[in-house]
Design brief:
alpha/beta; Aspartate Aminotransferase, domain 1; Aspartate Aminotransferase, domain 2; seven-stranded mixed sheet; four-stranded antiparallel sheet; 13 helices; 38% helix; 15% strand; binds pyridoxal-5'-phosphate
Length: 370
């Protein structure tokens, strides 16, 4: 056999540089490994998706998988489900892709992305890939939505304002009036209201889509619906704005399995409501237990709570892991030193979490008193 001759001369890979923005970016690796435990770390559904969804997926044939997925009909179903026109809804590969394509479609050189912080990490990650500037507005120590300072930070360059409502990792909310006032104060910008945790809060501004000209709402199927692995989200917004977003979106980014699952999920409201009720019950029990244990936490309208563990935050996360319970240390988030976010699951799961936290608190007391 003759050795293969390279078709081109050897390339010096150091000569091939990415765009300047990409060069400056670190890789983002959320801690996804070894998660066969009680998952109170990613605000997922901690149990299962609807059995009807699983049955629908199991009915997919081998031939079905040979075709490119068609998003349109399911997009129309989702729109109908939300009381919107098909043109006002785009299905995406999770809300993450929705954020990505919004940044791609709208953020240009000189534009500003305005963010209350701490908040969901991916807004910054996708904006950092564009030539826009990120403007952060720190929430006060009680993590209330920083309404006044956010409005004061709006400039003629503001192009996108991203507000997670409820917010992660804090669980705090902006009121409908505050959101409307932000939209009115920045008529030249898009207000993205990310309602990933809507089901645990119950309040929405999705009914204002089309009436408030610069309002876009995001919803995910990763949380209450329990479909995080399938990557399903959506954007709801005025048709003229979504038309630009469709230009940068791959026609195939939502796969057939996800589309089949979504069709079934939208038809099984009973399961969704049952799961949400479980979480709301568990949330009340868990917050009560945190108070009893003397731990500070912040009011939450989501399926998680931010807890002040203090200097021992790393030891706490490790001790919980040793008990088979995963939690998320948010100490690296702005203003969150010593704070750990704990997802709320079912009442039984949270009883287990309370027992583990109680153990940790008692052991700490022993360390301090010895
Ligand atoms: C506020 C917020 N938006 C979006 C997402 C991600 O949603 P998806 O799984 O649909 O990409 C998360 C996930 O944690 C979140 O906290």
């Amino acid at each position: 056999m003759t050795p293969m001759t390279p078709l081109t001369p050897m390339t010096d890979l150091n000569c091939i540089q990415p765009r300047r923005r990409v060069l400056q970016m670190p890789e983002y690796h959320p801690p996804l490994g070894n998660r066969d435990s009680l998952r109170l770390d990613f605000n997922e559904n901690t149990l299962a998706c609807s059995p009807a969804v699983l049955a629908a997926i199991q009915s997919i044939t081998a031939a079905d998988l040979t075709r490119y997925p068609e998003r349109g009909p399911v997009e129309a179903l989702a729109a109908q489900h939300l009381g919107l026109a098909s043109e006002q809804v785009i299905l995406t590969n999770g809300v993450d892709e929705a954020i990505h394509i919004l940044c791609q479609a709208f953020l240009d050189t000189g534009d500003e992305l305005l963010l209350p912080v701490p908040t969901y990490t991916m807004y910054e990650i996708y904006a950092a890939q564009t030539d826009a500037t990120i403007i952060r507005v720190q929430a006060p120590a009680d993590f209330r939505f920083p309404f006044e300072s956010l409005v004061a930070a709006i400039t003629p360059r503001t192009k996108l304002i991203a507000i997670a409502n409820p917010n992660s990792p804090t669980g705090s909310v902006a009121t409908r009036q505050q959101l409307l006032a932000v939209a009115a104060a920045a008529p030249h910008a898009i207000l993205l209201v990310d309602e990933a945790y809507f089901h645990f809060y119950g309040q929405t501004v999705i009914d204002l889509v089309g009436q408030v000209p610069n309002l876009i709402v995001a919803r995910t199927f990763s949380k209450a619906y329990g479909l995080a692995s399938l990557r399903l989200g959506l954007l709801a917004g005025p048709e003229p704005l979504l038309r630009f977003v469709r230009r940068v979106l791959s026609p195939y980014s939502v796969n057939h399995v996800a589309l089949v699952a979504l069709t079934a999920a939208l038809q099984d409201e009973t399961y969704l409501h049952w799961y949400v009720e479980e979480v709301l019950q568990a949330r009340a029990l868990f917050l009560h237990a945190l108070t009893r244990l003397g731990l500070q936490y912040w009011p939450t309208e989501a399926n998680f709570v931010l807890v002040n563990i203090g200097a021992a935050h790393k030891e706490f996360a490790n001790a919980m892991r040793a008990e088979g319970i995963l939690v998320r240390d948010r100490s690296a988030d702005p203003g969150c030193e010593g704070l750990v976010r704990i997802t709320i699951g079912t009442p039984e799961q949270m009883q287990r979490a309370v027992a583990a936290i109680e153990n940790f608190v008692l052991n700490q007391l022993k360390v301090f008193s010895s």
